[in-house]
Amino acid sequence: MNDAAAPAGNGQGRLVQLLFYVAVLAGWYAVTRAGLVNPIVLPPLDKVLAAIPGVVASAQFGADLATTLFEVFCAFVLAAVAGLLVGYVVGRSPRRIAEYEPLLSAVYAVPLVLFFPLFVLFFGLGIASKVAIGAAIAFFPIVLNTIAGFANVNPVHLAAARLMGASPGQIMRHVMVPSALPVVTTGLRMGLIVALLGCLGTETIAATGGLGYRMVALAELMDTVEEYAYIVLIIVIAALLNALAGWAEARAHRLMGAR
Amino acid sequence: MPEIAMSARGVSHAYGVPGSASHVATLDDVSLDVRRGELLALIGPSGCGKTTLLNMFASLVRPLRGTIEVDGQPVTGPMPRKVAFVFQEHALFPWNTIRDNIGLALKFQGVAKPEAAERAAHALEAVGLADFADHFPGQLSGGMKQRASLARALSLDTEFILMDEPFAALDEQTRIVLGEDLSALLSRTRKTIVFVTHSLGEAVLLADRVAIFSARPGRITGIIDIDEPHPRRSQFATSEKFNRLRGDIFGLLHDEIRKSIDDSVHRRSGAAA
Amino acid sequence: MAAAATSALPVREGPARPVRLLRGRVVVILVLLAVWEIGARFFVSPHFASPPSEMLLALPSMLATKGVPAALALSFGELVAAFAVSVAIGLPLGLLIGLSGASRRTLLPIVFLLYAIPQITVLPLIIMLSGIGPAAKIVFGVTHAVFPIIFTLAASVGEVDRTLVKFARITGASSWQVFRYVTFPYAVPSFFNGMRLAMVGAILGVLLAELYVSSAGIGFYTRLFADSFQTPKLFALVFVLAAMAVVLNEIMRRAEIRFSRWRNG
Question: A23 lies in a domain?
């Protein structure tokens, strides 16, 4: 579960990460060049890099990418709608928080992936089972963060708005939503990431398509060059999605004052 | 006979279940008149209920016993057109610029956009923040935030302004300067202002009358008249009269402060037992 | 600034009594169980879902199935091993990285980078290197669990209240004493927090690896029960795994609370 996906944060950290990437790639190249590793386990870097354009252009990759992204999108939307609604309703009532938040936290701690076989039984091997498990997994960081966001609206702000004559709708729009937004967007970012990881992970276990499925299929076929091309592409796509989500989150945080 | 604008009669208040360890009586049979057009300071040791009384005038808290009236009517809920409240922690929305903060307050009050924009600009001008209108609260110093908070209250153009330790979070020098500004501002309007403070100097410098509270449960032990016209100058702060009045208040307060400290020590050790 | 009662009656305040809190949760759980029971019994083919009653009835026979108890025990063992190895690796690494500002700035970003890589991409490689036995599962569990320990520990060791450290030094404490009496106690709650997250990670990693390998262990039996439509047994197996996860989690959560008392009041 990757909810620490907040990265280095500052310039120096990013530089270190970049250097690390370079070092790993250089190491990979050197080790395979020197023949230290069985090419079945780790193919040469240059071969993998050369194969990437071909993979990206292929119809199969396009289909796999579309499948995975579609699963993630559906899972995320379902989880977000449910999580935001439930999170708001629970978060505005201290009593409900005390009653239900521990329950939600407890379920969050259980790797829901272990219910995946049940989902496959019910939904089949296709996209639906991944969407279902992805949504189930992504629901929890979203709902828990939304609860926190709406629970922690500064009561002084609420009192001030009421005294100034704000209607309930105005209070919601001008006080509660802006106040909760930073935490809620963090939850949404976490939800998107775990939805992606959940879909990819379960694709490797039981699926008929998608990036995770393809990676494993290629491994089984011993087509290691293509397999590693897919691995590199998966890492890149995950990093892009992570960066996108992180950017959206940072934007929402900046809107809330400390510009 | 000065006109009574706000009043509290026989007000009592408490928290917790009576008889239990958590029961705290905050106010005990407090009666107080606020005269129209005056600046009234409420001062007293921590926990004496002065902020609770202020909150009652604002409708944030209901008394257990007794009545609270504003303009002859009992207080039942927010009165955005009559009463403006300045919080200790300024309560500016960090996600809006200070111009928008003021604009929003006016919107809540029901003022139309063009007039609201004009009043906001005017209020910012009056407190000297016109150049910072499009800054966010997070970009401003403590003193500026409080001035913005004040500007917001002034822009609402209410007859009454209630302030809860408005300068508490500021350093002494800023307090003195803001106090002078406030005094100058208010001498131009005929607002009725009640403010809570811990600072003796501030009370004497700004107020027309100072109501002194006892330690918990709060009662009013005395009201001191400060007979000095507005706007108050900093020369007043170093005058003989100022020191005498300050000494009078301190005399009434000192024992109460002692009592409230001893009381809180007792509570701590009692609760731990 | 709560509104007190307007009547002459005294205000009744205080926390909601624990019994009342439980009621809401119990109601939700009972409602969900009822929906599950009724839904699975009347609305879905028994091939695709089992109601809780059937699941519980199948529990004994599922456990009696040849090889299942061994597979469960093995998974549990892998879990514990993954967790232990993660602590053994993560604890010293976290401390070392955290103690110096320089290492925090250079090494922590790398830790985060590794943690951000979708772990699933490493699984085929691990299996290729370690085979489909327990070793691969433990390794995969460690890759999920070791990171939370490292960065929670490194972060908390790095953020020890500077004032406390200054005070200790001024009164003559040696570097070791500062660590033993200031830094270490300060880091304990974060360490237990990291351990709880590590347990969650270890469970995730081990179970994911188990399900991936469908030729032995838990993965084999989930596939077996699913393919032969012994649905109540499949549900029962998953239920046992979930119960195991919940119990382990609860243990870690309580440990975390117990050791964080000074921080949470």
Answer: no
Q: Do the domain assignments include residue A189?
A: yes
Read off the tokens for B153: 């209250």
Q: Which residues of A touch C110 (CB under 8 A)?
A: 16-17, 20
Residue bearing tokens 């460690």: C142
* Token pair of A146 as six digits: 């939304």
Report the pLDDT value the prediction gives residue C13, as an integer from 0 to 100.
41
In chain A, the largest separation of any two C-alpha atoms, in whole Å, equals 76
For chain A, how many structural domains are there in total? 1
Q: How confident is the model at residue C11 (pLDDT cuts 50, 70, 90)?
A: very low
Residue found under tokens 């902020």 = B51
CA distance A236 to chain B (A): 34
Minimum mean pLDDT among A152-156, A166-170, B261-265, C162-166: which range?
A: B261-265
Domain ranges of chain C: 54-264
Residue A220 covered by a domain: yes
Task: Say which residues have a Cβ less than 8 Å from residue A232's Cβ, sequence separation at least 6.
Answer: A48, A49, A52
Q: Residue A241 domain-assigned?
A: yes
Query: Looking at residue A195, which CATH number applies to its domain?
Result: 1.10.3720.10
The nearest CA of chain B is from the CA of C11 a distance in Å of: 6
Report the distance separating Cα A211 and Cα A200, nearest Å.
7
ipTM: 0.85
Q: Exposure pattern of A33-50 as b/e (b: 16+ CB <10 Å)?
A: eeeeeeeeebbbbeebee
Domain enclosing residue A63, as ranges: 49-258
Going by C-alpha positions, the residue among B136, B58, B124 that lies closest to residue B97 is: B136
The answer to whether the Cβ–Cβ distance between B94 and A259 falls below 8 Å is no
Using the Cβ of C4 and the Cβ atoms of chain B, whether some distance falls under 8 Å is answered with: yes
Contact check, Cβ <8 Å, C4/B15? yes
C137: alpha, beta or left? (left if phi > 0; alpha if psi -120 to 50): alpha
Q: Which of A159, A165, A175 sits opposite B93 (nearest CB)?
A: A175
Chain A residues lying within 8 Å of C33, measured CB to CB: none
The pLDDT value recorded for residue C40 is: 87
* pLDDT per residue as tens digits for the range A98-155: 888 888 988 998 899 999 999 998 998 999 999 999 999 999 999 999 999 999 999 9
Within the 3-22 window of chain A, which residues sit less than 8 Å (CB to CB) from chain C? 4-8, 12-14, 16-17, 20-21
Q: What is the pLDDT of residue B1?
A: 61
Sequence-ordered alpha helix ranges (H) in chain C: 18-38, 52-64, 68-99, 101-116, 123-130, 134-158, 162-170, 175-178, 184-212, 217-227, 231-259, 261-264
- Look at B52-56, B195-199, C75-79, C103-107 and tell me which has the smallest mean pLDDT: C103-107
CATH architecture of C54-264: Orthogonal Bundle (1.10)
